[in-house]
Amino acid sequence: MDLSEHAEIKNTWAGCIFRVKTGARVKEELGADYPEFVAELIYLNWIRGTIFALLSLFAFALIMLFDLHYYQADKWEVSIGYPILFYSHMSVFMLFTAGIGLSWMKRPEKTGRPSRYHQVLIAAFLWLAMLNLVAISIADVFINGSIAAYIGVVFSLAAIFIISNWFCLFLYLSNMAVMVFFVNVAAAYTGKDFGIQQINIVTFTAFAVALSRLIYYAHIRDFKNRKLIKRQKHRLLELSVRDHLTNVLNRRSFAEISDMETARSKRHGGPLSLIIFDFDNFKCINDRFGHSAGDAVLIHSAELIQQNIRKTDTLFRWGGEEFIILSPETTLEDVAALADKLRLLIEAFVFPGGVKVTASFGVAQFAPGESIEDTVQRADKALYQAKGAGRNCVEKQPAHFFSC
């Protein structure tokens, strides 16, 4: 078996049953997502525990009426199991009432930092609930020798709650030991042989633990898949709005961001300007140094410009070797000064392979009554003027020069 086949088997659902992961291994496997995973488990167990407790309250309230009926019918004198049954039912009822009250005092968050308070509360609730349900099962053993209630308890909790390996072992093994001990007490008290019941207790506890682990590992797998899908969606979104070469925002992003900025400019009356520029004689760079050198010029220029504009300014790759900078709260004169600063930086920068380039810039300010496309068109005209003026310069295009 090669490594790829081995990895494929490890990732199957069946493989989840046989792989024992300690808390440290799960933490290592999930990495930075582990706190979110724990917080999600706490939240799910809190929701399920609340529903389980609410449903159980109605059931046990009804069951205690039957217990009182047995008391009136003198059943309590027949077997010690009946009073144990009543007090166990009452204990569970009080536990679930207290659990619901405590849980609703402070609700856990589904994501974020795990709540230690809820983690301890859920662990205590599960252990005490199972212990009380075990007491009910012991009462059944005294009455009719049946462990059906215990089997129902362990499988119900295994199917409902998602718990870690170590707590799972503690929860089930400790209560199994209590159950086995009191079955021996029942055997001595009644004079009956409960050997088969003891074997069944151990067997069905093992099955319940296996079911609990299968659900736990399945949830780990589901959580990892959901995080992977979320990251892939985020990556696809990034690819759809960013240029793959320079990693700056693309033309598609410009439409969305410029709409927001023009709406803000109209609402508050603040200036909004933009710069459009491209590199002079860029084809010559590709022909002389190769396309990889041209790509390096685009990549390093994008980095250089982003380092020298404000956080409120946004750089876009417009197409080919053309870029646009959208600059909110900036007048035409200020954006022209910024463009000249960037022009000098590009002119002085030495690109990989000793390549030197210059760039021409056109600037325009958004004017009332026009669209952002009109402003881009005016800046583009200014860029052509810069090219016609000998390149490596900045030209402005005021609004009154605009014509349809």
From TrEMBL:
Regions that span the bilayer: 51-72, 84-105, 117-136, 142-162, 169-189, 201-220
PANTHER family: DIGUANYLATE CYCLASE DGCM-RELATED, REGULATORY COMPONENTS OF SENSORY TRANSDUCTION SYSTEM
Record's keyword terms, sorted: Membrane, Transmembrane, Transmembrane helix
One Pfam family linked to the record: GGDEF
Organism: Desulfatibacillum alkenivorans DSM 16219
GGDEF domain segment(s): 270-399
Protein name: diguanylate cyclase
Annotated PROSITE patterns: GGDEF (PS50887)
Entry EC no(s): 2.7.7.65
SMART domains per UniProt: GGDEF
NCBIfam families assigned: GGDEF (TIGR00254)
Catalytic function, reaction form: 2 GTP = 3',3'-c-di-GMP + 2 diphosphate
GO molecular function, a single term: diguanylate cyclase activity
